[in-house]
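Case study 2.
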Amino acid sequence: MSLLKRFQKARRKCAATLLTLSTSSYLTFGQVVLFENEQDEGQAAYKIETPTATYYFQTEAGAFSSILDKDGNDWVSFNRNAGPWGMYRGLPNLVHPENYFHPGYKNCQSEVVHNSRRRVTIASASLNGKWKCTWDIYPTHATLTVTQTDRRPYWLLYEGTPGGTFSESDDYYFLADGSKHPCSEPMEQRALSSPEWVCFGDKSFNRVFYIAHHEADDAPDQYYPMNGMTVWGFGRNYRCCEKFMVKTPNVFSVGFIENTDAAVVRKKLRKEFYKSGGGKSKVVQLSENH
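Prediction:
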């Protein structure tokens, strides 16, 4: 083999090694990686990989159809089966009865407005242009900002499957006050005290999925089990279908914490999203270099 060919072969091997290292270790360095031409449950989707989760965002629905933990378990599990076994599931499921920002529908348009290794931002709007929101996806969590409505009230729903499947006996939820409940136990309609957040878990995992409202309000919140899924609602009436949130902008975050201890979770969420001792969101200035 000539010296030139040996050099070329070595260069290709080095390039292949670097590619393998980059694709296998990028999550270690906290990167967010966007794949734009994906499909999920028969619809066009963005796939966003982070060190803590993999998100599938249906672009024509403006919503998450799947949110996978590090082990590949889907905590949303939207699919084409009827009712709570598939079609009802999703996040954030903001607008009813039009079902804007609900997976499975094609009544929204979405575009990526920022894409870097630190943050992917997706802007979505209803096709009539009256409802708008953005998702900022970071290495550790995803943040929703409701930016425009048609002045009607709305809710935010997590209708999903803790740990990948829904079990009223094995799944649970707990609140900022430390109270823990099996998913078989509804929460009566009430406005959560500040800070407003809920975590869902599965007894099989040392992991919880949280939904946090950055600024407390007086709108009632509620939870109940619905056959094959959770129904958690910020600003929702038990059972259906009054909505109570009207504010814009309105900010929420979701993500995983690799711990099930309520005190640890509370400390982490306070540090991440809330001022000490209060329920108001910290204001974070984002740089275009992020």
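The domain at 30-273 is CATH 2.70.98.10 (Beta-galactosidase; Chain A, domain 5).
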